[in-house]
Write a structure and sequence with these properties.
60% of the residues lie in helices and 5% in strands. With 159 residues, it is mainly alpha-helical. The chain has a domain of 110 residues: Orthogonal Bundle (Arc Repressor Mutant, subunit A). InterPro entries: Tscrpt_reg_Rrf2, WH-like_DNA-bd_sf, WH_DNA-bd_sf.
């Protein structure tokens, strides 16, 4: 099963945006975010548009424009971000049917479908408990404890 990395990528971008605004008082452009995420600015704009529709980010056009968080970090949960992304497939809804009519496969798939549903419910509940402020605080703790924090902070701050 291919891993969907949209949630982790956009969380990465949102934390960069928060730090950039704190340090520079300015939004981040799609080009800057694309560099952080090793992707194309068009992908950034498309993804951010979904977050803007949910009120998580705001965009400003023109010189000095870009993307900003629309809410304080402690008012944005990972669950809200996941929902704004269209709830990418963290777990499949149901197992694939390989041998239609096979009773063994039906028994296995029913058990897996129930297990996937329970795992999804636990994951969604946990995502709703974690805020961007929690992630930012964890990042700050890690930076403070890292022996090469000055070099890492300089690299991190380029975005």
């Amino acid at each position: 099963m291919k891993r969907d990395s949209r949630l982790s990528n956009i969380l990465h971008a949102l934390l960069h945006m928060a730090e950039h605004e704190t340090r520079h008082g300015a939004p981040m452009t799609s080009d800057m975010l694309a560099t952080c995420l090793s992707t194309n600015p068009v992908v950034v704009r498309r993804t951010m548009a979904g977050l803007r529709e949910q009120g998580l980010v705001a965009s400003e056009k023109g010189h000095g424009g870009g993307w900003r968080l629309a809410r304080p970090l402690d008012q944005v949960t990972l669950g809200q971000v996941n929902l704004a992304l269209g709830e990418p497939g963290l777990f499949p809804e149901t197992p694939p049917v390989e041998a239609d009519g096979c009773l063994v496969e039906a028994a296995v798939n029913d058990a897996l479908a129930e297990t996937y549903a329970a795992a999804r419910a636990l994951l969604v509940a946990r995502l709703n408990d974690i805020t961007l402020a929690d992630l930012a605080a964890d990042f700050s703790r890690r930076m403070a404890a890292h022996p090469e924090r000055d070099r890492l902070h300089a690299h991190h701050g380029k975005a």
